[in-house]
Amino acid sequence: MGNHSDGSPTSSDAVAKAGHEEVDKFQDPGLPPHRLRLADTDPKAAKRSERQVAILFGISIVGTLLFLFAYFGIRLDQTIATLRLQNTFLGLGVAFAMLGIGTGIVHWARALMPDHEVSEERHELRSEEDRVAAVKIVDDIIEETGIKRRPLIRNTLIGAMALAPLPAIAIFRDLGPLPGDSLHHTLWKEGERLARDPDGTPIKATDVTIGSAFHVIPESLNSLTTGKLNEKAKSVVLLMRLNPEDLHPSKGREDWSYNGIVAYSKICTHVGCPVALYEQQTHHLLCPCHQSTFDLTEECKVIFGPAVRPLPQLPITVDSEGYLVAQSDFHEPVGPSFWERS
């Protein structure tokens, strides 16, 4: 055997000690000494931990009930204060529901479930024996959790888990029914003046300069007494002016603009976010939610992002007083794609 002065091992499971020629094998240190918890030695401490876990599960139940109260009990009255109040209670309810059940399970595991360290050898798989062993492992886990002999924890956990999905069900319910033909029609109609959002001041063609962008609503919107927000959500439009030679209208759309002024739905065709960013140099419209980008010179076709349809264009012209007016409603449904869309 040679003298390896560089400290290299002479066998597969050996290492040379620094400054020594002798080689020692690694020894299995074994498992560290097990430290008993207070709940392992004191029945009162175990009972106290059990009550704490039950309280945490109870907090989860209260959080779920708080969410349901805020969702169904607080009626929105079109004021910001009420909306903020409802959102606050919705957030607190979900937080307590999730944190209560999560911290309860963690505390249960740390304080009451067995925590002995186990080292197992890897054995060759045997199908039938493995199935029997797996069943025994599951039975052992259930027995070690103590869920059979701790009905307080079991019952509060069942209650918390039964109620926890209800906020998600309520949120999905709020998505509402499919829109049907509700997005096929807006307030825009022949002769409807384009007005500034939100004051409703009509816009003349001479007000729109090259590079400018206006957020536009139908002039009649502010006169509505009911359903104003819903109608505005469908009817909002972006109005911009380009050099007419930069536009490339398709056949049949040659007269949908006026001297380079074009109007497009502000509702992104991805998931309905407001398209609000206009890049004057590139003539791109950008949705800030998921970065869908639309080319204004090519009838707002999608050039980047998850949207798959161009923004619907509103045909416009001017009236006898020089105000911009709609020629008609949109020729296609506004908003994101949906199953009932033709």
UniProtKB/TrEMBL annotation:
Residues 1-13 have a biased composition (Polar residues). Coiled coil: none annotated. It is a multi-pass membrane protein. The chain crosses the membrane at residues 53-74, 89-109. SUPFAM superfamilies: ISP domain. It holds the Pfam family QcrA_N. It comes from the Bacteria. Residues 1-37 are annotated as: Disordered. Keywords: 2Fe-2S, Cell membrane, Disulfide bond, Electron transport, Iron, Iron-sulfur, Membrane, Metal-binding, Oxidoreductase, Respiratory chain, Transmembrane, Transmembrane helix, Transport. It is found in: Cell membrane. Residues 261-325 form the Rieske domain. Residues 18-27 have a biased composition (Basic and acidic residues). Belongs to the Rieske iron-sulfur protein family. Iron-sulfur subunit of the cytochrome bc1 complex, an essential component of the respiratory electron transport chain required for ATP synthesis. The bc1 complex catalyzes the oxidation of menaquinol and the reduction of cytochrome c in the respiratory chain. The bc1 complex operates through a Q-cycle mechanism that couples electron transfer to generation of the proton gradient that drives ATP synthesis. This is Cytochrome bc1 complex Rieske iron-sulfur subunit. It comes from Arthrobacter silviterrae. The lineage of its organism: Bacteria, Bacillati, Actinomycetota, Actinomycetes, Micrococcales.
